[in-house]
Specification:
Number of helices: 13
Keywords: Amino-acid transport, Cell membrane, Membrane, Transmembrane, Transmembrane helix, Transport
Mean pLDDT: 85
Number of domains: 2
CATH superfamily of the largest domain: MetI-like
Number of strands: 12
Membrane topology: Multi-pass membrane protein
Largest sheet: 5 strands, antiparallel
Helix content: 40-55%
Structural class: alpha+beta
Low-confidence stretches: 31-38, 426-454
Distance between the termini: 115 Å
Strand order of the largest sheet: 1-2-8-4-5
Protein name: Amino acid ABC transporter permease
CATH class of the largest domain: Mainly Alpha
Strand content: 15-25%
Order of helices and strands: HEEEEEEEEEEEEHHHHHHHHHHHH
Main location: membrane
Family: Belongs to the binding-protein-dependent transport system permease family. HisMQ subfamily.
CATH topology of the largest domain: MetI-like fold
Shape: elongated
Radius of gyration: 37 Å
């Protein structure tokens, strides 16, 4: 075995430590002397929404690009560049560069500079270098992104007073929606002379802008589906509840009559708007948290049940008492009489009134817009806030009429048929106009009893 030499081992260790220290020192010095790839910090890169409705950035339509950067404290910037992706277009007209400073960047100055378009690259050259650590805002108008849309990436660069050029990191991407058929149709309408002449009239532009009608339809249609989803669930739920309350109202037990009366009078005696506010803002405070849709369904169903209770009660009481007496004389019990004789006739008589109540409930879904439920009026309200035009409300009215007018016609035809069945003859076309007036009046009285009787 070779003998241990402390001097040799210590010398080797010292040499290794010296080499390691020298390498670390070299790396440290190199890091200090090296110029960073990009010290310019991007604070904002965005495009102005250019859709007629909503807050989307749509490809193929002019928008404004805003780019804000913060230079390092030791950097003196003399130029900037923006490179747009293929398929984009822009213009140097009205382009602007602004220096922001002071508290909350409220102080502005506009240095002299030149904007030069070189293919997809926009070059900005300052006539005098910017102050060190400057905050710069660049605004470019007339920018059109590719019609296909997607996440659009824009490349940035800058030049220092020393002549060194660097790329800007962290530019991010801009979400651009592809041009749809609706967007193309709206753009086509805007260029039509008759549309321009139409919109030259202030009243027509505010209430019936053809371009806004086209662009609002698909958006408000989403709210139309939500309103239908609410009423198609709430109304079937309200029918059994309302019928049960009507049986309680005519019950011989005072307790049942009292409970039903309190509920009906409380719901019918307060505005539906107030009930919605209590449900949406009061229940969360009590620890009950439900989504907007189920809570909207529950509120609408509870409100409608109170009115249906009176409709059913009036329908039951409209059946001649002689029918009940005849049934009992045949040996039928009270329950059998109710199930086999009274209830079928009641539902038959109140079908037109039930349809009217469905129409009212569908229109009352508009009250849910006050608590943020995205139904017809809420979508229309959002578009109005963006455009300043009343046209979306007119489009919303169209969607309500799309349901209410056919149902109103159905009620009229149903009343005519019921009138024909009661008189023993088949109704003719003229009955739709005046032959069923007496029966229509009977159903109107029944509806009035359901809505106003206590």
């Amino acid at each position: 075995m070779k003998p241990f030499d402390a001097r040799t081992t210590g010398g080797r260790l010292s040499t290794r430590l010296a080499l390691t220290a020298a390498a670390v020192l070299c790396l440290f010095v190199q890091a200090l002397l090296a110029t960073p790839a990009s010290a310019l910090e991007v604070t904002r890169l965005s495009a102005q929404p250019n859709a007629d409705t909503g807050s989307d950035v749509v490809g193929g339509i002019d928008t404004r690009l805003t780019w804000e950067v913060q230079a390092a404290e030791d950097e003196v910037v003399s130029g900037l560049t923006l490179t747009f992706p293929e398929g984009s277009s822009y213009t140097t007209e009205d382009a602007r560069l602004t220096f922001l400073s002071g508290q909350d960047l409220m102080d502005r100055s506009f240095p002299r500079c030149t904007f030069t378009a070189d293919g997809q690259t926009l070059a900005i050259r300052l006539q005098e270098p910017a102050p060190a650590g400057v905050y710069v805002r660049v605004e470019v108008y007339g920018v059109q992104f590719p019609a296909a849309g997607g996440d659009i990436t824009i490349e940035g660069g800058y030049t220092l007073a020393s002549g060194q050029t660097h790329e800007v990191d962290g530019m991010g991407a801009i979400a651009v929606r592809g041009t749809s058929i609706v967007d193309r149709l709206a753009a086509s309408l805007e260029s039509q002379p008759w549309v321009q002449a139409w919109n030259a009239n202030r009243f027509l532009r505010l209430f019936a802008n053809p371009v806004l009608i086209v662009t609002s339809l698909p958006i408000i249609f989403s709210g139309f589906l939500m309103a239908l989803a609410i009423v198609l669930v709430a109304f079937p739920l309200a029918i059994p509840v309302g019928f049960g309350l009507s049986l309680m109202r005519i019950s011989k037990l005072k307790v049942l009559r009292a409970l039903a009366s309190v509920y009906v009078n409380l719901i019918r005696g307060t505005p539906a708007f107030l009930q919605i506010y209590i449900a949406f803002f009061g229940l969360p405070l009590a620890g009950v948290n439900l989504g907007n849709y189920p809570l909207g369904v529950i509120v609408m169903a509870m409100n409608s049940a109170a009115y249906l209770c009176e409709i059913f009660r009036a329908g039951i009481q409209s059946i001649p008492t002689g029918q009940g007496e005849a049934a009992r004389s045949l040996g039928m019990t009270g329950m059998q009489t109710m199930v086999s004789i009274i209830i079928p006739q009641t539902f038959r008589n109140v079908i037109p009134t039930l349809t009217s109540e469905f129409i009212l409930l569908f229109k009352d879904t508009s009250l849910l817009a006050a608590v943020g439920v995205m139904e017809i009026v809420m979508y229309a309200k959002t578009i109005v806030a963006t455009t300043g035009s009343i046209t979306p409300y007119v489009v919303a009215a169209f969607f309500y009429l799309l349901v209410t007018l056919p149902l109103a016609g159905f009620v009229s035809r149903l009343e005519a048929r019921l009138h024909g069945a009661d008189t023993g003859r088949i109704p003719s076309d003229s009955d739709d106009e005046d032959g069923h007036e007496d029966k229509a009046q009977d159903h109107a009285d029944l509806a009035l009893a359901g809505k106003d009787a206590s």
